[in-house]
Design a protein that fits this description.
mainly alpha
Length: 167
């Protein structure tokens, strides 16, 4: 029997702690779904009509964290060497699942540091127009939604690769 070591979101806590607990739970779920996947199984030619594979999914998650937390919330100049445009990535052949997951984990840590600097009502430092400027609350909630959605994608992709299913 496998012991579930993922973070349990707090049952009674302030808003920020509760939301961040859910975000961390979903992050850990994604990492759990990656466990045991070898590089030769993570770059299949086609797993869906859009060509989504494990490497594409990991890369996309990392790019989104960069964009929302570093780029939008903290107004940092963000350079992602392998990001070539919306939904386009040019990964080097030597990029491995482990290196992409390490990059994702590092980005999550940076995102956590950024979130710690702000209150939930604080507005993003950058946005193209004042009307479209988001609060940290909106950004964190959006990232929970997006990360949970990627958990579903990960279920489908992983099952297609090796039949593994689970939480």
């Amino acid at each position: 029997m496998t012991i579930d070591t993922r973070t349990t979101p707090p049952f009674r806590a302030d808003e920020k702690s509760t939301l961040l607990g859910f975000l961390q739970h979903h992050r850990e779920t994604l990492l759990m779904k990656c466990k045991g996947l070898t590089d030769d199984r993570s770059r299949p030619d086609q797993l869906s009509p859009t060509g989504r594979c494990w490497v594409w999914s990991n890369t996309w998650r990392t790019v989104r964290r960069y964009q929302w937390f570093q780029g939008v919330m903290d107004d940092r100049i963000v350079d992602i060497p392998w990001h070539k445009g919306e939904n386009e990535f040019d990964l080097e052949p030597e990029e491995t699942s482990d290196s992409l997951l390490a990059f994702y984990a590092a980005e999550c840590a940076i995102s956590d540091e950024i979130v710690a600097q702000y209150q939930m009502d604080d507005l993003a430092q950058w946005y193209p127009s004042e009307e479209a400027r988001r609060s940290l609350r909106w950004i964190v909630t959006h990232m929970i939604r997006e990360t949970a959605r990627h958990c579903g994608h990960a279920d489908i992709i992983r099952e297609a690769i090796d039949g593994a299913t689970g939480e």
